[in-house]
Amino acid sequence: MNSIEHSHQIHLAVVTGSRAEFGLLEGIIEALHEAPWCQLSLHVAGLHLDKNLGFTVEEVKQRFDVNSEVEMVPPDDSPAGMALAVAQGLQGFTTVWRETQPDLVLVLGDRTEPFAASLAAHYQGIPIAHIHGGDVSGDRIDDAQRDGISAWTQLHFAATEKSASRLRALSVEGDIHTVGAPGLDAIYNREPQHRKNVKESLGLERDAWLVLVQHSNPIHPESTAEEIEATLEAVHRSAVEHDEDVVIIYPNNDAGHTAIIDRLVKLSTEPRFHVIKNLVRDDYLDLLSTSSVLVGNSSSGVIESMALGIPAVDLGDRQQGRERDRNVFESEFVVSDILHAIDCARTLNNETSFWNQSSVYGDGKAGERIVNTIKSWWGKRVEGRLCLSSQEESLVTSLGGSP
After folding, report:
1. Same CATH fold, 190-347 and 2-186+364-393?
2. 367 with 186: CB under 8 angstroms?
3. Which of 20, 179, 301, 302 could form an S-S bond across to 369 if both were Cys, CB 3.0 to 4.6 Å?
């Protein structure tokens, strides 16, 4: 494709809607930004623009130019508020795509932002590339949004062969590629951080810590307050027993999240607890990789913990459908059950040989495969257009006209 790299660049629009998803996309965005065959545009939406949850659009802007910002913050903390945010996002992205006319829209995951962005692209006949299609989390809203995106997608980037097989079973259109999870790319290509440096940079008090990342479940947001109370009691007991700090990362803005935030605000004066709104990707990985155990219901615990070399405890049913490695333990939101799961998880910290096994989510080269596949896909489209144009010129000439 060297001969057409500059004269036939692809206009590739990348959508990011949350701090976590931006961390997964960051390496891919950087590679596309440097590619001579790609004219990249970056579109920020949703959670990035929520001032109550860190306003992380500023972190994105520190790394890349942002071409548009699409407001879609729920007007209230409810399932209806999430639906209204999708409606707002659909309107916003429809306008952006109509004005910019990208050749391809790249999205990741199952949140409301990629759902609205891809639906707006689908209505306008703009091809879509989707990362992490075919996954199953167990959250029926996330699963429905993810499968909806897959139904409209032309380029599917599945994290595992099982996810790819599920896409085939769904009879989706387009090309299906098993590439691995891009969240592992930075993990496998980073230098290990010393615990002392992490402790000093985050202002922690003790030499060891566990990490809690817990979101609400939008299917039953009314149970969020009870769930976070059980989790906090369990992690506090475990941390006291092992003389550790508890580092807690803010939740996303799914319905029910304010119950978690209200409780975290009250922890600011309690010893041992350290509450952080946001961390850039590198700092987040440093924190996790030096922790004793990751507790909560974030996809990080299921997808990335094995590559990080840490045990994880997955709570509730938010991630229950995801494939997992043997370092992930499960528990309901019952204090005694959570404590038991944490104790079981901690035993892996003494089993050095356990961590020699590979992760079901790949080898840390997902981003490279995604970028190369997009380049190949675009090259074939350009060659097809050039061939069609040549055929049209030949037809005109044969009819006695001038090309």
Report:
1. yes
2. no
3. 179
Three-state DSSP at 350 gives: helix
Average pLDDT, the chain: 93
Q: Write the DSSP symbol of residue 210.
A: E
Say which residues have a Cβ less than 8 Å from residue 196's Cβ, sequence separation at least 6: none
Sequence-distant (≥ 6) Cβ neighbours of residue 254 within 8 angstroms: 82, 215, 216, 217, 218, 221
What residues contact residue 367 under an 8 Å CB cut-off, 6+ apart? 27, 28, 31, 182, 185
How many helices and strands in the chain, by DSSP H and E? 15, 13
The number of angstroms, rounded, from the C-alpha of 400 to the middle of its chain's C-alpha atoms is 57
Q: How big is the chain, counted in residues?
A: 403
Spatial separation of the C-alpha atoms in residues 10 and 390, rounded to whole Å: 20
Cα Rg of the chain (Å, integer):
23
Judge: domain 190-347, CATH 3.40.50.720: no
Judging by beta carbons within 10 Å of its beta carbon (0-12, 13-18, 19+), is residue 154 exposed, middle or buried? Answer: middle
pLDDT at 139 over 90: no
Q: Which ranges of 36-174 does DSSP label H, i.e. alpha helix?
A: 57-63, 79-100, 112-123, 140-152, 161-169
Is 70 exceeded by the pLDDT of residue 249? yes
* 2-186+364-393: in CATH 3.40.50.2000: yes
Q: Domain map of the chain by residue range?
A: 2-186+364-393, 190-347
Contacts of 243 (CB under 8 A, 6+ apart): 206, 208
Contact present, 189 and 307 (Cβ < 8 Å): no
In contact, 331 and 338? CB cutoff 8 Å: yes
CA-to-CA distance for 180 and 158, rounded, in angstroms?
Answer: 7
Contact 111, 18 (CB under 8 A): yes
Residue located via tokens 């996790």? 288
pLDDT above 90 for 40: yes
